[in-house]
Amino acid sequence: MASRKSQPNRDNGDKYSILLPTYNERENLPLIVWLLVKYFGESGYNYEIIVIDDGSPDGTLEVAEQLQKIYGEDKILLRPRAKKLGLGTAYIHGMKHATGNFIIIMDADLSHHPKFIPEFIEKQKEGNYDLVSGTRYQGNGGVYGWDLRRKLISRGANFLTQVLLRPGASDLTGSFRLYKKKVLESLMERCVSKGYVFQMEMIVRARQLNYTIGEVPISFVDRVYGESKLGGNEIVSFVKGLLTLFATT
Amino acid sequence: MTSVTRTSQLRGANAELSGLAAPGRVALSATPPASAMTKLLQWLLGVSLLGAVWALVTFDLLGLSLPRTYREVAWPMPVYLLVSFGCYSLATVGYRVAIFNDCDEAAKELQEQIKEAKEDLRKKGLKM
Ligand SMILES: Nc1nc2c(ncn2[C@@H]2O[C@H](COP(=O)(O)OP(=O)(O)OP(=O)(O)O)[C@@H](O)[C@H]2O)c(=O)[nH]1
Ligand SMILES: [Mg+2]
């Protein structure tokens, strides 16, 4: 069991459901879960981890089952699906089973470090924000393992997006965020894009709906294990998505 | 653990900035504030307004018989604007690339935690 130290027991009714979509994350999943348990244990917030595995051929689900035995069925919930149906629907699927009033979305590949979650939560409380977004582009935020080319593309794409959409948040394509559950539900209903653009649309729609957005600088460390699933035509589909949002929102 | 973190608050400040689609704050539960205009339309409106003013001055469409210098200044204005916007963009992106943080510390910390986690998980009986 996670060591329960003499930490403040913040029993104020708030509960945080972490959605972890996984596809071939056998090596990363135990590590991310361990880190989540560690930081939630230390900060004392009430939480649950929902693993949405899309039939990973590498046996991610078996690992998840072992983790469930170790950490308990109240902490680790498994909501697998038979085949790879994409990230967007994975979030919707996971959200349906979430019992928390807040939802945290993050990648399971260790590029998003759980140590920032307590900061997200504090930020949320500070301004009663509807959503808190991690940002690589401000303050102490940053990246690890990116070469100049990737930095240039990232900054360029971000600049273009800021100019065209004026979205009111600095990191649009990041997917490390905390939402009020109701807010996430209403956003999910409206968002239709895929891939990176999906994250962007979430923020843009949030602004449209006058939801308030807080930001917390995060460090983004490129995945150590496993393969990147987003292929070469990334940029093309990004630009397409950007223009679509430009014309429709 | 982490050093002091600067956080920022962004409360749709841009809506006011644009002045075009500032529907005011609407109750959260309400349906979308029928956001009057898409960003595309906002841009088109902005550009055509500017273009109209430019044409009025440059070609003296209203017959105001403006001083010649006005026209001479106005005529190449679109090119100046474009070029300066281009320069601004390049400078901004370049600067931001240059100051993009490399989180070496974070990567190191993660590596150590991975080791620790693996050991602990093995003790807890996880078979990888
Ligand atoms: N359930 C589910 N999870 C997915 C699917 N595609 C990706 N994921 C997970 O979503 C998260 C983000 O996907 P990544 O492949 O890391 O995408 P990325 O971060 O844009 O790209 P890289 O980190 O460079 O690989 C990871 O935890 C993946 O395991 C999917 O179709 N279904
Ligand atoms: Mg990733």
UniProtKB/TrEMBL annotation, chain A:
Gene Ontology molecular functions: dolichyl-phosphate beta-D-mannosyltransferase activity; metal ion binding
Keywords: Endoplasmic reticulum, Glycosyltransferase, Magnesium, Manganese, Metal-binding, Transferase
Pfam families, A to Z: Glycos_transf_2 (PF00535)
EC number: 2.4.1.83
Cofactor requirement: Mg(2+); Mn(2+); Ca(2+)
Subcellular location: Endoplasmic reticulum
Name of the top EC class for this enzyme: transferase
CDD domains, A to Z: DPM1_like
Keyword Disulfide bond: no
Record-linked SUPFAM superfamilies: Nucleotide-diphospho-sugar transferases
Family indicated by similarity: Belongs to the glycosyltransferase 2 family.
Protein name: Dolichol-phosphate mannosyltransferase subunit 1
Phylogenetic classification of the source organism: Eukaryota, Metazoa, Chordata, Craniata, Vertebrata
From TrEMBL, chain B:
GO BP, sorted A to Z: GPI anchor biosynthetic process
Recorded coiled-coil stretches: 100-127
Main location: endoplasmic reticulum
Subcellular location field: Endoplasmic reticulum membrane
Keyword Transmembrane helix: yes
Top-level taxon in the UniProt lineage: Eukaryota
Membrane topology: Multi-pass membrane protein
GO annotation, cellular component aspect: dolichol-phosphate-mannose synthase complex; endoplasmic reticulum membrane
Pathway given in the UniProt record: Protein modification; protein glycosylation
Cited Pfam families: DPM3 (PF08285)
Keyword field contains Glycosyltransferase: no
Record keywords: Coiled coil, Endoplasmic reticulum, Membrane, Transmembrane, Transmembrane helix
Spans through the membrane: 40-59, 79-98
Xref: InterPro entries: DPM3 (IPR013174)
Role description: Stabilizer subunit of the dolichol-phosphate mannose (DPM) synthase complex; tethers catalytic subunit to the ER.
PANTHER family given in the database record: DOLICHOL-PHOSPHATE MANNOSYLTRANSFERASE SUBUNIT 3 (PTHR16433)
Family membership noted in the UniProt record: Belongs to the DPM3 family.
Subunit architecture: Component of the dolichol-phosphate mannose (DPM) synthase complex.
Protein name (record): Dolichol-phosphate mannosyltransferase subunit 3
Organism name: Menidia menidia
Organism classification: Eukaryota, Metazoa, Chordata, Craniata, Vertebrata
